[in-house]
Specification:
Number of strands of chain B: 11
Order of helices and strands of chain A: EEEEEEEEEEE
Largest sheet of chain A: 7 strands, mixed
Strand content of chain B: over 45%
Largest sheet of chain B: 6 strands, mixed
Helix content of chain B: under 10%
Helix content of chain A: under 10%
Shape of chain A: globular
Structural class of chain A: mainly beta
Radius of gyration of chain A: 13 Å
Distance between the termini of chain B: 41 Å
Number of helices of chain B: 0
Structural class of chain B: mainly beta
Radius of gyration of chain B: 13 Å
Shape of chain B: globular
Order of helices and strands of chain B: EEEEEEEEEEE
Number of strands of chain A: 11
Oligomer: heterodimer
Largest interface: A-B, 26 and 25 residues
């Protein structure tokens, strides 16, 4: 069964460093998402991506964040200058079309900012 | 804006039935989802409701009343492995179909 994959599973970085989290969505899916979950808190939407551009973003997704799909398969989330409060699980998800459909989540990347 | 409420914690006994409630307020409602999340893992899809009524899927059922902004997830024949957080989430029309999640209900199944 096709699945969303994410790398790395765990990333440790120093405050102020740049990190890139990688996702490979399911191959025929068209809409891609990033969510984050701070430990003990709810899953929060960050950004959605369709047709090679951002379709919607939340207040969390400020200028420190960016997304791109560089090669038609990978979908990346970059945090330019990490802060302690960026420590969280980051989940990538995808759906095949805009029709209501379950979102397929990747296993997540645990980001720890020291 | 959107607001989703669900109980923080519930406890039930193996073999029993448990109902987890969710109330929501959203503009342009387009669907309600239930996900299961074990600690340290990704959410996994359980069910989806867009019309009023009951959707049944094996041991899991989900109900929706759009007029009341209310849903519940019903888990039957509880097993120890059902101990997890159960997340209620909604999507809105006109959006990019992102999910807005509630804080989750931590279910503990006791032997």
């Amino acid at each position: 069964e096709p699945e969303v994959t994410q790398t790395p599973s765990h990333q440790v970085t120093q405050m102020g460093q740049e990190v890139i989290l990688r996702c490979v969505p399911i191959s025929n899916h068209l809409y891609f998402y990033w969510y984050r979950q701070i430990l003990g808190q709810k899953v929060e939407f960050l950004v959605s991506f369709y047709n090679n551009e951002i379709s919607e973003k939340s207040e969390i997704f400020d200028d420190q964040f960016s997304v791109e799909r560089p090669d038609g398969s990978n979908f990346t989330l970059k945090i330019r200058s990490t802060k302690l409060e960026d420590s969280a699980m980051y989940f990538c998800a995808s759906i095949p079309s805009r029709a209501p459909h379950e979102q397929f989540f990747g296993p997540g990347t645990r980001l720890t900012v020291l | 804006g959107q607001n989703i409420d669900q109980p923080t914690e519930m406890t039930a006994t193996e073999g029993a039935i448990v109902q987890i409630n969710c109330t929501y307020q959203t503009s342009g409602f387009n669907g309600l989802f239930w996900y299961q999340q074990h600690a340290g893992e990704a959410p996994t899809f359980l069910s989806y409701n867009v019309l009023d009524g009951l959707e049944e899927k094996g041991r899991f059922s989900s109900f929706l009343s759009r007029s009341k902004g209310y849903s519940y997830l019903l888990l039957k024949e509880l097993q120890m492995k059902d101990s997890a957080s159960y997340l209620c989430a909604v999507t809105s029309s006109g959006s990019a179909r992102q999910l807005t999640f509630g804080s989750g209900t931590q279910l503990t199944v006791l032997p």
